[in-house]
Structure formats: C-alpha cells, structure tokens
Amino acid sequence: MSCKCREWEAALLTDRKNQHLQLVLEGKGAAAPGISTGFERFAFEHIALPEISLEDVDIGTHFLGKRMSAPLLVSSMTGGPARAAAINANLAEACEALGIALAVGSQRVAIEGASASGLGLDLRQRAPTIPILANFGAAQLNLGYGPDEARRAVEMIGADALIIHLNPLQEAVQPEGDRDWRGLLMRIEALARVLEVPIAAKEVGSGITGALARRLVDCGVAVIDVAGAGGTSWAAVEAGRARNPSEAAIASAFAGWGQSTSDAILSVREACSDAVIVGSGGIRDGIDVAKAIRLGADIAGQAAGVLAAANTSPEAIVEHFGIVIAQLRIACFCTGSADLSALRRAPIHRVPSALPESLFAR
Hints:
Elements: H1 3-25, E1 42-44, E2 61-63, E3 66-68, E4 72-74, H2 81-98, E5 101-103, H3 108-111, H4 121-126, E6 132-137, H5 147-157, E7 161-166, H6 168-173, H7 184-194, E8 199-203, H8 210-218, E9 223-225, H9 234-240, H10 245-252, H11 261-271, E10 276-280, H12 286-295, E11 299-302, H13 304-310, H14 314-333, H15 340-343, E12 348-350
Parallel strand pairs: 4-5, 4-11, 5-6, 6-7, 7-8, 8-9, 9-10, 10-11
Antiparallel strand pairs: 1-12, 2-3
Helix pairs in contact: 2-14, 8-11, 9-10, 12-14
C-alpha cells in the first residue's frame, strides 16, 4: 500500500475515533430504554454490627503480577490524536497516583505508523508501577496482524498484557466495518502461544458468555473482560454517526443487544473458575464495583463514566475515582467484609424476577 493510501486511511480512522469520543461525551451512546447492567437485581445483606473498622478495610488486590490499591481498571477509550494524547496522559498520571490499572484504546493508528496518539513510552514513564494493557481489535488478525504487530503494541507503551477487543456488532453496523470474522479463535490461540505477555479478550458492550469465555481460556487467553450490556452501546454510537436514515435504523435496532454485565459475570465465572475476570459495562459507582466482585469479577472496569474527567485533568480523574473507592470501602464495611476476599463471600440476595438462587451457592 502506498504512503498516500496509508495516510488517507489513517485520517479516516482518526476522524471516526474522534466522532466516537464526541458522541459518548454527549451522552449519545446510551443503551436502549429498559436495558440495564442487571446490578439493580441484586442487594447485599446489610450488617448492622460489622465488627470491623472502616479505616482497616483493605481493598487492595493483585492484577497482572502487580499490586493495586483498589480493584479498578480504566477501560479502553480513544479519540482523535490530539484529544487522545491529552486523555492518555491524564489517565496515566491519575492511575499511577491512585494505584489502579489502565487499558488504552485501540492502537491501530499508532501500530500502522500514522500517529502515536499519546501511545508511546511516555505513558509508561508517567505510570511506572501500575498494570497497563495494550489493545487492538480481533478483526485485525484477519487483516495481516500477527505476533509482530502484537509485540509492537505492547512494546510501544511498555504494557503488561494485550487486549484483543471483540466488537462484531459494532463492525457489523459500522459502514466501514470489518466483517470477516472467520477463523479468529484459531488466530487468537496462535498468538497466545508466542506472545510474551498475557492476552485479555474484551467485548465492548454486548457481553461475553460463559461458553465463549471457556473456549477463549482453553485457547490461552488469561483475562476475560465481559464488557456487558447496560453501559455504552456502540450500536447507538454508530447510529449517531450514520450517513443516512437507513444506516441509523439498522444500527439503532441493536442498542439493547447483548448480555447484561451482571449476567455475563455470573456466566463467565461459572464456566471459568481459573480465569481472571474484569467486570465492566455500565459500572456507575463503588456499589456496582462491590456487586461485580461479589458476583465473580476480580476487578471492575469503567470507561464512559470517567470520560468527562479524563477529558479535563488528572486531578478530575483522581477526584472521580476517590468517590468510587470511598463507596466501595463503605460497601465492604456495611457487609462486614474486611477485604475483597471476604466481600466475595458476603451475603447477597436477589430481588423478585432476578436470577435463580442456585447461582449464589458458593
């Protein structure tokens, strides 16, 4: 491919990413009415005499071999180069200060050499101690990506793992989408065999089932990020940037598609006792984080919920997550949970019309 063609394709991709970011900031990526994460269907049993000190509650954990102060991951987000560079710098500084993990948005533009978009070793220099996850789309594995591109993604930011994001719905409703998904499980398995860092498989808002998670783990994937329905709907985002009413109608019909985040966590944990699970998709606050962990997640991820802060400053991000962390600590305190291990055993019940009791046997 000529340099001019590459530059033209990169410009189109960058413009698309910037449109995505703006639509999410404007709140135009909301799931269809009535679609939720499902966390509202679960309630912790309140312990009126917890017999622990709030000050002593330990919400620290380990992820990708590193100690974190809280079980939190800033999930992948992206945008045009100028915006992305500022957002990534803000996120790296804030995540380092907070002691939480950071997953970058798609590195496709940077891998193909058009623009770094703030995705260079400066990111690792700003965040030397936290887990950082690199990222590109599964569909790229059918378009020439392989171990070389994966290593480039990891090395350019000093990442501890590589996310392969799974977004078939978004690609299907996107006019420029990559729609050939044949043989990708085999390609992921081949990559997992040779890549020096763990691979994470992540949906982008429609959820991962337990059955698929089991197949991915059996192929060598170490981390499953369920990214369930109830948060940002990329079908709704694509409807917002459609070129005509027909494209908008096709995309908007899928704004409620997928498994809820709570259902996905339960399903994946039941199928994959050996996997590291990230509970993401519509995480609103520290109580949602507590519920995600109780249902089977190891850590919880948030993207759209922190995007406005990320677009502002590192201090705004620290303030945002300071609230989430305080809420999580209080949820632990009021369930009598001195740490996350105890929280995973905390009494919880379902409200009417929720899931069967058998799912809560532990």
